[in-house]
Protein: Glycerophosphodiester phosphodiesterase
Organism: Paenibacillus lemnae
Amino acid sequence: MDTVSNKKVPIIFAHRGASGEAPENTLAAFSLGLEQGCDGFELDVHLSKDGEIVVIHDDTIDRTTNGSGKVRDMTVEQLQAVDAGAWFDEKYKGEVIPRLEEVFDLAPPEIVINVEIKGSCEGKLEPILVELLKRKGRLDTVVVSSFDWKSLKHLKQLEPAIKVGLLYNLNLDHHEHLPAAAGTEVYSLHPNMKRWEPKDITGPQAAGLQVYGWTINQAETMTEAIEMGMDGIITDYPGRLKALLKGTPA
Ligand code: G3P
Ligand code: MG
């Protein structure tokens, strides 16, 4: 039983998987998140040259693989030919850039997946994502977020049942007004935990919005987010948050 009395228990989102302890956005990082007891994944997506949605943060493969080049200029076969694990630790050699579909296949159906659109490729990614979510039965358990709110509006126009979340770095008193600015129905707000004061989420929650803060890695900030009643906490260290919620901090 959780020991956070009188507080709702937040969804633990493994940010890029358990990326504090495994190479970000790889199946190894998502598997480790599951082992550590996360409830959800946050991951970043781009479109390959041949129209496959792939899971990688940057628009190039240079930082997180042994290759180089732009994601959008490479086919999925080329992208999966490079190593995405050894840069982090030699023991992860052999990890590849996953296709989004592979992460959906890895995640048990109850795991919530926050898909962050990094590069929409001039609107080409959205219809492919809608088709994939429908085909994999993931409309209910995926929240699509982006700093590019036009991309989210585009998604909602294609499929009104999709849940979308606004990502932002703003310092605001009243976050609940953001959906009006986005011009579409919004499911969740994704504020940068470092960028706003005072931290008050009662307004958005009263407006029926979920609040998922990022990237919350230290025990003190995790405790602050729990005390605020945050609905979801996006962290590189899901095991640390799980232990804190159980009252057995590492
Ligand atoms: O979705 C929250 C967070 O992932 C946004 O920033 O750069 O880590 O993708 P970034
Ligand atoms: Mg992200």
Notes: The radius of gyration is 18 Å.
